[in-house]
Amino acid sequence: MDFAFTSDQQLLKNSARAFLDEHCKPATVRMLWDDARGESEAMWKEMAQLGWLGLALPEVHGGSDLGLVECSLLLEELGRASYPGPFLPTVLVGMGITRAGTDAQKQRWLPAICAGGARAATAFLDGELSWAPDAIATRAEKSGSGWTLSGTKPFVAWAHVADVMLVPAHAPEGLALFLVDPRAGGITQTPVTAMDLATRWVNLTLDGVAVGADAVLGAPGKGEPLLRALLGMGAVGAAAEMLGAARRCLDMAVDYAKVREQFGQPIGSFQAIRHKCAEMLLEVENSHAAVYYAAWARDAGTEDADLAASVAKAYVGDASRKVCGEAIQVHGGIGFTWEYDLHLYFKRAKALEVQYGDADYHRELITAKVTA
Amino acid sequence: MDLNYAPEDLAFRQATRRWFAANTPAVEPKTLAERKAWHRTMYDAGYVGMLWPKEYGGRGATPMQQAIVQDEMARASAPPPINGLGIGFIGPTIIVHGTEAQKQRYLRKMLTAEEIWCQLYSEPNAGSDLAGLKTRADDAGDHMVVNGQKIWTSSGPIADWGILLARTDAKAPKHKGISCFLFNMRQPGVEVRPLKQITGSSLFSEVFMTNARAESADLIGTLNGGWGIAQTTLGYERGANSLGRVTRYMTAFHQLVKSAKALSRNGKPLIEDPVVRAKLGKAFAELEVQRYAALRVLSALSKGEPISSASSITKLSYTEFEKRFFELSIEILGPWGQLMPGSPDDVTEEVSTSSGEPGTFATAFLWSRAGTIYSGSSEIQKNVIGERVLGLPKEIRADRVTKG
Hints:
By secondary structure, chain A is an alpha+beta fold. Chain A has helices at residues 7-23, 26-33, 41-49, 68-80, 87-100, 103-115, 223-259, 271-300, 305-331, 342-353, 359-370, and strands at 120-122, 139-143, 146-157, 164-171, 174-180, 187-192, 201-211, 216-221, 261-262, 265-266. With 404 residues, chain B is an alpha+beta fold.
């Protein structure tokens, strides 16, 4: 029983912190708010060189064969930096292809992902705003040797910069997952302007999008277990990012409470502020336990891995909202200004709450599992 | 990072589970003699005082083994050992700070529950501000004369001995004039009056000491050095028994689910109500996170890492969780959540309360109000976390200002 990071894991976390402190400063994030793509090609390439993009992908394809614990370490740091870009969906699609892809699909995508030459998006949310695999209304119909896809996929993060998109749809055989070019004919992309300018969402309509037989990931009709696994990993990854955002807000609040003076004293000496900070730390530490337990459970393949993923997403969603919000309260007026950086992390945490299943969705999954 | 249990811990768990399955009494021990007998059975099997060194009658076990035993006791709904305060906190204090003679005299009888111990710390006017205590111990040569009043004393009526904090220098700053004694409860001049709690039971008491006697040889540590000793005692109290507690909550959760399936409202089982389902999901998520956090603490303890200040986070976390959980439980159960033990037609399940006694969801709910007050209230824990973990500036307090 060892809940601490190994020295390699700690090294990875430290180097990620150092890299992002230098290359993903708040000023960098703000600059990218005004960028049409919203992310930095240079940073993506550097992340590839650092081995981050292939961290959990097979060594034979240029990766490092590590797991969700290591990815979560990185994602925590990325959330802490409010990093803008498709890191999480790219890693998820890479892991999906690793699990279920044909040799040709692996050859086509995995080396490119590892080298920073391909980005990916996950179009998991369906028309009725449901995350449940059995509620997917998007259809896949046989057409010659391939398929045509029709339906709507709202709030797909980073679809506008992706080279490949993973699209679940109902085929006659049952649920199937398709690797789709986001710029293929029949796809309409409508960008969304949301609270977090560093999370770019696109609403997609698929109107008879033609894909080849080789676009199916895994066997048609057998897509549900893979989709559930990817949703679970996405939930853990999003929770890790929220944890990072919350820790950043906590650190900023504590630092501020030490130097900001009112009534002739640092405000951190007042119990009203100190107790708030203590409650924030409690939520951050519990969130740490939730994220890394869930990541480890997935890597170790334990029976409770799905449950732990839902627990992490539901818990950390609530906790990070509370921590980031209370950080604004500790700061007072300055925390509510555009100029001050707190809202970068506050909004990042909010944007992640609705990705890979919101808390309500995961709470129902939990209840269904534990009351059966 | 590897959260698998080591093979030897798994084997130990299996053996422990078998023992409790075979030995847990079918009927809850009621009388003091019955409870002592059950304690003795567990002691003889090696399940009491596990963290104590072997030379003092303990098992010299690892924190993991201790956690496993507590977890298995919770799983088997086994009655707790009787001398918890002594074995969990007072004994370890004697082991760290006591003289050889004190260790020889007191430790073994504490472990076997031949002598029951209580803690004489809080006073009517010294709760969170414990260092403001007024009980006096005046030097009378070979002994001290003790006068004062203590309150919230668990096991007071059955205690043979107590660990006592008393003022031995009225002129010194308040933290520096306190001494710690091992104190005989069975003497003239000691009167114990049970206090009835909001649960209706009387597990606490008031203790009045009038010209009572504490032997000078029973001083723990140095004269006027009692405050530091009180801090170690509280330290032990905050670190212990994380896994077993979570297992008790988990048992209560499943009993709640069972009741939610059996009870109906608006013509359908409670369990089918989406609002109830959302509440259950939230409660379970919080409960699981308590378990993960407990594993994290256990991992740190196993490596010998100090967890003293961080244990304030653990205590704050589980006691506040317990309040939310039982509030939610009786909210879900509606009027059924109001029932006290012994109500006719009770269809809800028996649950174990944080006092260790079984009860209803209502008694567990009432008991949950105690956890955020005893052993340092939530507010005190937040002060500790703020100052010692986050490094926030200390508040300016009148009693910290040195006068003239």
